[in-house]
Specification:
Length: 184
């Protein structure tokens, strides 16, 4: 298994999302289930800290179960929320130059600023793109959060009628995770 971590900003955004979605007692129960790893899920982790992705995935899965929602649906909504939070804070620099073409060109750089694992490959043509992620531990919660994040960033670029489809997933047996984008 490939070990990877994620910067604290998206993790803190995830905690904010979960705090809005769940009752306080549900959140306490989830943190108890996480044991020592709950230290990462306070919403106050320093921006420079790296959080183990398996812990973030487990937190997402537990929160989805407490909400009685599928991990895919919950994770996608959490990813969208996290992108919104990130765009208002640390990642606001991309708002100044955000065409979808620019964001796609910068996607590998942006990925490496958030994750210390995985390699992102971008293929672009007019009004379409494909993003492939390799060398990353596969998990349904991670893919759902990334899908939500990709959707929100694409929409913020002004791409009209953007569709983002997670067309292949390593958790479902594919060789790599793939997202296909179409817009006008």
């Amino acid at each position: 298994m490939i070990a990877a971590t994620i910067k604290a900003v998206p993790v803190n955004g995830l905690v904010q999302f979960v705090e809005k979605e769940l009752a306080p007692d549900q959140l306490v129960a989830i943190r108890q289930q996480l044991g020592d790893d709950a230290k990462w899920m306070t919403g106050h982790v320093l921006a420079t800290e790296q959080v183990p992705i398996p812990v973030v995935n487990r937190f997402t899965e537990l929160a989805a179960a407490a909400k009685k929602e599928s991990v895919k649906s919950f994770g996608k909504r959490a990813g969208r929320f996290g992108a919104e939070v990130g765009l208002k804070s640390v990642y606001k620099f991309i708002l100044a130059v955000m065409s979808i073409e620019y964001v796609l060109r910068k996607a590998p750089f942006m990925w490496s600023r958030v994750y210390d694992g995985g390699v992102i490959h971008v293929e672009q043509s007019p009004n379409r793109a494909r993003i492939r992620i390799t060398e990353m531990p596969s998990n349904e919660a991670l893919c759902a959060r990334v899908t939500g994040w990709f959707e929100t960033i694409g929409e913020k670029t002004g791409a009209k009628d953007l569709r983002c489809i997670h067309s292949a997933c390593a958790t479902e047996g594919a060789a790599e995770c793939v997202w296909d984008f179409v817009w006008r």
